[in-house]
Each structure stands twice: as structure tokens, then as C-alpha cells.
Amino acid sequence: MSQESFTIAVRNRSGIGIERHPVVLSWEYGNRAIKIEHGGVEVPYQLDDLNGDGVADELCFLTDLKGNEQRDFSVRFVAADSVCHYASEVYAEMLLKNPKIKEENMQDLYISSLTVKRGTNPYWQLHHHGPAFENRLVGYRIYFDHRQTVDIYGKYHKGLELKETQFYPDSVQKSRGYGDDVLWVGSTLGLGTLRGWNGSEPVMLDDVMERTLSIVASGPLRTIVEVEDRGWNAPRSESVSDSSRITMTTRYTLYAGRRDCMVDISFDREVGDYEFCTGMINVKNSMEWSDHSGLRGCWGTDWPVSAKDSVGHKRETVGLGICIPSEHVISEKPKDKRNYAFVVGTKDSELHYGITFCSANESFGFHSAEEWFAYLRSWKEMLGAYVETTVRN
Q: Global pTM?
């Protein structure tokens, strides 16, 4: 290839400032090494192999943008031995339980992917019950069972912790200010879990021919965790004569420096005749806020674990939020004892939305419902900002 450089122009077409905006581009240059600079300063980046063929196919880097600002980034191809290895701002892990190790934060059987056949439930064989991932602000995990619930890990101070605590800090770590599980989710929607909808209530993903959870990318700037439900017998309306199963792939992407996690769902065919459900747990005695156009949040306090496991824990106050594009919202359901739910759908084969949360323990975050709901409004505005990216040779 004769081309040795090109420019990526990123233009914020909105009037609001955006922090840590992800610039994501399809990558056509295989595993060639590069350097990216803006204004003479090197910019960290990440090349990911999303389809698992051993060749990078997507480029990602992050930038701050003022309202209506344009930034140009120069990309140069360089020798492999001159590439800088950037300190990771994110972390992801998935582990099998080691029966020889009793400590909850010293497990050592790391895996990157696991596939199980219909009727197999590895929930109790996996440490912290599925993949967990974090940045310096927040942590998430996904349950590896028919619930596939999204759960959260709150922090007191900014930093990466999961490699040390493995989602279960010991008493010494707690005394040093490490974070912890801050939400009991049970069989609720947790935070943004997608499930089927049978016309009256959420339906879990019990009948799946094959389920795979994978860590697709793990730094330095983003983690991507993928859940594939192959051959799901999803509930469908009575008008649908096709009884064949569908395959759903869900990607959870967490970027460095952002507390929100993006949820991107694709199906193996158009699913306009199906209805699905997502939303948030109704945290005990929580306050609710909604703009009735896809943005909904709550603020509440409850035990983060079941009653039998409550020793060593305290009641936790959290703020939860979900932002669903209005074109995906079929209806916003009134809250019940378990959930703040939405019925959602798509006319084609894709669904997209964002989830976010805070813990009142944070030294850097939000400490009242009013603060949290104000953040949710600004978060939606930022998600809706139009940023244009072009490539110039």
C-alpha cells in the first residue's frame, strides 16, 4: 500500500459540549500499526477484532468537543516497534470458579468466552456469575443465565478495582475505600436488561438453543461484552404465523471516562412483529422521573444483597437511568413493585439504547435525586448530539 497517512475530521454539529466522545470507524488496513495525533499531541486509540478472525476491523479513539467545534486527527502508518502501548483505562474479566480457592477475590481461571447448550446453566460455576467490566467511574456485570440481568458495581473513588476485588471486596479492601456491589437485582430488569414481552409482562430467555457470552474487547479505551442467544423461542403476537426461532446478539460497550454503557442489539432477521421489554428495577422507595419520550430514571435506597447475605453490607443509595430512542418505544409501563418497564420494538433488525447509574458513595458523583435527574436530562441531550466524522486522504 502506497498510502502512508490520512486525516479524520470530527465535527460537532450541535451547540453543546461533549466529553469523551467515541470516534468509531470501520478499519480496512488489517493489523498495520499507526499513530494518531491532534495538534501535535499523540492520541491513544484502540483497534479491535470484532468478528474474531484475527484481523482488526474497527478503530476507536475518544475526544472532547466544544459546541460546533471541528477537530482534525492525523493518522500515520508506522513501524510496529514504534507503537506506544497506552495504559488501560478500562478492564474486563470472566472467570470460572476454582474449587481449590476459597477467597472470593483471588480466583484465577480466566476465560474470554463460554458457550452452553440448551438447558445448561453455568451461573453457579462462573465467578461473579458472568462477565464483569469497568472503567474508573463504574462497573457492570451480566448474569450468565436465562435472566441475563445487568447488575452494577459502585465506587467511592475513581480507579480500576475489579482485578483486585473481583466484584467481592474483602474487609481489608472495604476499609481502604474499595467499591462493592450496590444493587440487588434478583429477577427484575436490573439496569437495562432486554427480555421478551408476552403482552402483559417480561419474559426471560429460558428457551434458547445455545447461549454465548464473550469479552470481545478489553482496552485500553473501551470494553465490549457480547451476549449471543442463538435460537431463542421469543414470545410473539398471535398474528405471527412464523414459529421459527430468532438469534439475538447484544453488545455492551463501556468507554473510558463515561458512566454510561451503550447497548446495541441485532437480530438475524427483521423482528417488526415482535415486542420486547427493558427498563430498570424499582429500587425500594425510589423516586421516579421520566420525560415520557424514552428517558427514565430513579433514585432509591435498599439492601444490595438478599437478607441472608446482608452481613457486612449496608443499605446502598443509587441512581439509575435508561435512554431509549423514541422510535423504539412502544409504551412506557406504569411502575410496579419490581420494575420501571418499557415495551420496545424495532421495524428492522436492530435496537439501540443507553444505560447509566451512579452510587451515592462516590466522592466524584451525584448525591441527590435532583442532581441525578438533572444529569439524566443533560445525558440525553449529549446522546442526541450530531457529530459528523469524515476521512480525508
A: 0.96
